[in-house]
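Batch manifest, entry 17 of 40.
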Amino acid sequence: MAEIVRMPKLSDTMTEGVVAEWHKKVGEQVETGEVLAEIETDKATMEFESFQDGVLLHIGVDKGATAAVDSILAILGEAGEDVSGLLAAESAAPAEAAAPAPTPAPAPVAPTPAPAAPAPVAAVAAPVAAPVVPLPSSNGKVKASPLAARLAAERSIDLGRVTGSGEGGRIVKRDIEAYVPTPSGGLGAVESSTDTPVSQMRKTIARRLAESKFTAPHFYLKLSVEMDAAVEARKAINAQDGVKVSFNDMVVKAVSLALKKHPAVNSAWMDTHIRTNDHVHIGVAVAVEDGLLVPVVRHADRKSLTEIGAEVKEYAGKARDKKLQPSDWEGNTFTISNLGMFGIEDFTAIINPPDACILAVGGISDVPVVRDGQVVPGKIMKLTLSCDHRAVDGAMGAAFLQEVKSLLEHPVRMLA
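Output type: structure tokens
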């Protein structure tokens, strides 16, 4: 018996999906566990496996098309089975739900005498289209057929720029259709633009961050960190064979330890209560082609710098290849966004729900600093903490940020 396969909900924020690829064609046999299609969600492209055996009788969403969650993705059944009834029932369901309740027929009304015939009225002339006036050329004279003039007006073409091929240089239809504007630097310069369809990921980023920005009252705390000791510590760690640690890994470790000391920052506003998390799951923002993904390093406070480095590197590769799974991006309790590798000195980030805070990390700059009354060269990194004032107050955020600064300026504390 034919059964409908519906567009699955593959992430907690997914409302619609795009079919990136079909792995089966209509008429082909599908086995349970076989990949039927690849579905692009708001966060990744995921393989969708069939939950039943059967022949693919109908494809409800073409490759590249978008469909809402629970809409018809496909129909599986026995070879040659008629699916028109299923499709008709599916189409009729919304119509029936929206159909108004029948109203009783109106009571009969006694006939009234027909009114006397009205006096004849003078006929009204049908409206006449306004004549098309050819666009004037620079000398105020133009020779064009009425059709050419109308087409030029519709397309906003200055007839003074068109060369006529008709008798005596008269502009005709073919001249308008063949006309190609040329840049002139003035009013006739060509303007162009490109419209790019919004991806599922970009739609979700727009919706969630707009909700965050306009729902959570943000405030920002900024701090400069002297990174000289961290730079030397990283050199020593990376001097070991097979070991590679980034400054971002050091920030993740410092943040995770600071959150254990200041758990109020490791929280979320839940409308009726504030949830303080005992576990520390750090979301690390990764830039991808369509936007931003935030894979999660779980229990980061329990992991070494090298373990954090290997995990972040693996997640970044999977994110760019759209191979992340829901378990890779769910459950963050705090988020870090680092743009230092792009030369950004400092910036403010929008809180990533449901977290109460997000840390924006800038690059390391060589600047003069004052130490013991002397101006000396120094390496400075700027941090900006965005806080949801409903859950975190200024003093809480400041104490947390000071702890992060202390850990980065004395990295041996992170290695103990």
